[in-house]
Here is the input.
Amino acid sequence: MFKHILLATDGSASSEHASRLAVDLARTHGAKLTALYVADPYPYIGIGELNPAGLQAYAAAGQQLAAQAHAHVDALCREGSVVALDVRLVEDVTAVSGIVQTAETLGVDLIVIGSNGRSGIERLVLGSVAAKVVAQSPVPVLVAR
Here is the structure.
């Protein structure tokens, strides 16, 4: 049924369950799996130009976190039968834009994303990446809690 699955991962505990689901689905369907880490844009507008070391440190930290998240998904893929895994890092876009744009570019059949289960005021103030991806995605989205 699925030929190409996009896993949006940030290495957090909430993406752990999503990672396991995505790997299991890829195994079951013989699908290719792409693990995507999106590094948000540098949050300090104007400061990076004055202090390029801050921008470089921010980018390096994002790349390190992406490598850790990708290594974890790779380890899951190596348990049991091997899943065809591709890893990607998208930088300087919001998580929602990066996920939706990558899904469109790669032509995936399914997006798997974790949700931390925020509710009430916290969800209203902080928003939900998963909910926004569901609203904007051109393909089905599986949200794992």
Summary: Residues 4-144 form a domain with the Rossmann fold fold (CATH 3.40.50.620). The mean pLDDT is 86. The longest strand covers residues 32-39.
